[in-house]
Model the fold of this input.
Amino acid sequence: MVISDVSQAGDAVLVVRPELTDAELNELFGASWPAHSPTSFAPILARSLTWIAARRGDRLVGFVNVVGDGGAHAFVLDTTVHPDERRQGLGMRLVRAAADEARTHGAEWLHVDYEPHLESFYSECGFRPTAAGLMRL
Done:
């Protein structure tokens, strides 16, 4: 499903659950996250509730993944915008579309973990800070 609102980020088009190749996801993640190591995304997407991709023409310029617990809770993961596309509202559009899709799939709560420098971004997306625990495995 194509999300038609493109007013915030020029001609970038958001698509719900599109076919994505490992090559294009690894290219996006490699440009966005210097420590990224190429991986196979098929097992990740197979367990996902949904995902949203942003394309400018044929180029993948943004991605967000949503996983769920099968009930009321869903989690935003891997919000990624290509460095050339940042600060234009595309990340916010991706997260808001992910929230809409999670709601459509029956989620009542949407969670996200983020580093402190991203607090204002996620606040603008509609999240509020909460206390949470984290264990590195």
Observations:
- Residues 90-104 form the longest helix (15 residues).
- The radius of gyration is 14 Å.
- The helical segments are 22-32, 42-46, 90-104, 119-124.
